[in-house]
Specification:
Shape: globular
Largest sheet: 4 strands, mixed
Helix content: 40-55%
Length: 282
């Protein structure tokens, strides 16, 4: 009898451990010391706090239990640090430095880190093209000619981003990263003023023009689990209605902001933790 009770207690303890997560974080950004960080997730079209902690001498930690795997964001007070973390069972390591922002330690976080690093590098390339344009103008080159040349470089960056998102979403249809990547791509591509001023009008229009075909491609390839994700399903229903209205095959429907499944737009160029901690953040 005692052996049976011991076995049952062991199973309960193992189950409890399996449903817990611990995030150990480090930062070399002095401006973060003494600030409070929050771990937030979307729930019912609003953000809720999973946990909070203070940064003390470059160290911080979150911990808790989970009933399902989710993608969370790290906030400093009310400011999103643009640092996604998968809340899944295990020990998760986070670095929030100026030169390196990394999450690791669990399978999905390793996948997320690889994707987010590549995505951030691509977004930074738009800034590099912007600097190239400014330098060329200062050197006396014709602005219209230079901009036409550099727009072509920007389009190459966009196409790389398209391939990156497509592979990431299709490789993760049946876990939490697929829907998150899908909605993140949509949020970025539908955000105005996403690019340097001189290229913004062209690139924004281009992104909006490409998005419908990408959405349909993803949904054609998608698994049932992906299609039935509540946020994906809500977005796609609204998307189809909008497409019908644009084609003149349906009357305009009254929709709430929540119907799109994407209620927040992240900042386009992920800033460093030091920038987010500074007084210049708005």
């Amino acid at each position: 009898m005692n052996k049976v009770l011991y076995a049952l207690l062991s199973l309960v303890m193992l189950a409890s451990c399996a449903d817990s997560y611990t995030i150990q974080g480090t930062s070399n950004v002095s401006a973060l010391d003494g600030r409070k960080l929050y771990l937030k997730v979307d729930q019912a079209d609003s953000l809720i706090d999973l946990d909070s902690c203070d940064v003390v001498h470059g160290q911080f930690s979150f911990h808790g239990t989970i009933d399902s795997v989710k993608v969370a964001q790290v906030f400093m007070d009310d400011v999103n640090l643009q640092f996604p973390v998968v809340i899944e069972s295990g020990n998760i390591n986070v670095k929030l430095n100026n030169t390196q922002q990394r999450v690791s330690g669990t399978p999905l976080n390793d996948k997320l880190n690889d994707f987010w690093t590549k995505f951030t590098q691509l977004r930074n390339q738009y800034g590099e093209i912007d600097h190239e344009e400014s330098a060329a103008i200062l050197n006396g080159h014709d602005e219209e000619t230079i901009n036409a040349q550099l727009i072509k470089k920007a389009l190459v960056v966009y196409e790389k981003g398209d391939k990156l998102f497509t592979k990431f979403v299709t490789d993760n249809f049946d876990n939490v990263l697929g829907p998150w990547g899908f909605l993140t791509r949509i949020s970025y591509d539908t955000t105005p003023n996403a690019y340097p001023v001189w290229m913004n009008d062209y690139m924004y229009a281009y992104a909006l023009n490409q998005l419908p075909s990408w959405v349909e491609y993803i949904m054609t390839k998608a698994t049932d689990k992906f299609k039935n994700n509540p946020q994906v399903k809500a977005f796609y229903t609204n998307f189809q209605q909008t497409q019908k209205e644009m084609n003149g095959t349906a009357e305009p429907a009254t929709t709430s902001p929540e119907a799109s499944g994407t209620t927040t737009n992240p900042d386009i160029t992920p800033p460093t933790p030091a920038q987010m901690a500074g007084d210049s953040v708005h």
